[in-house]
Amino acid sequence: MKTRIATDKKTLLDHYKIRGEVFIVEQEIDWREEFDAADYEATLFVLYENETPIGAARLHQNKVGRVAVLKEHRHKKAGTKLMNDLEAYAKKQGVSELKLGAQCYIIPFYESLGYEAYGEIYLDAGIEHKMMKKTL
Question: Selecting from 3.30.300.20, 3.40.50.300, 3.20.20.80, 3.40.630.30, what CATH number does the domain 2-135 have?
Answer without folding.
Answer: 3.40.630.30
